[in-house]
């Protein structure tokens, strides 16, 4: 019996936009900027303000697709070494989110942990989350942090700061060729 949270039933969303937002934050951190560049923040705010309800949903679905794809890669990478992805990914993610109390509200952390565990067990994060109602404003910073933290974990494992981005862009290119 298939799960209603099976990825084949999930919308992919706007992966390109989600990747663009995630990549701009990651590059800022790699460049040693602790705060957000005001011009970059203005452009991101302008972009997100231009989204209608469908655009926002597509962006959320795109972020969940990033999470799913990152966890799939991590699951395979850890399995190659006889390790469990949940055991090796979750402690770092939860600890990192707990160190960001000004950005991430504590009540968003269990939801994000569940989202990542859903992806780590080959379920759609967006469909898993949908069963609990609408997204909340408090979950948005945590969702953004999760996409960054997973990408950073992949980049550290590979020793390549751009690997997580290439992973997604290559997948998007292959999907566009089909």
What's the structural blueprint in terms of helices and strands?
Blueprint: H1 15-30, H2 38-49, H3 53-80, H4 85-98, H5 109-120, H6 125-130, H7 139-158, H8 163-177
Written account of the structure:
There is one protein chain. This protein is mainly alpha-helical and 178 residues long. The protein has one domain (11-177). It has helices at residues 15-30, 38-49, 53-80, 85-98, 109-120, 125-130, 139-158, 163-177. Helix 1 crosses helix 3. The protein is globular. The mean pLDDT is 89.
Key terms:
178 residues
Short précis:
With 178 residues, the chain is mainly alpha-helical. Helix content is 69%, strand content 0%. Helix 1 (15-30) crosses helix 3 (53-80).
What does the largest sheet look like? none
Estimate the helix proportion, in percent. 55-70%
Please, how many helices?
Answer: 8
Dominant shape: globular
Number of domains: 1
CA-CA gap between termini: 29 Å
Reading the helices and strands in chain order gives HHHHHHHH
Overall pLDDT: 89
Q: What is the radius of gyration computed over CA atoms, rounded to a whole number of angstroms?
A: 16 Å
Structural class, by secondary structure, is: mainly alpha
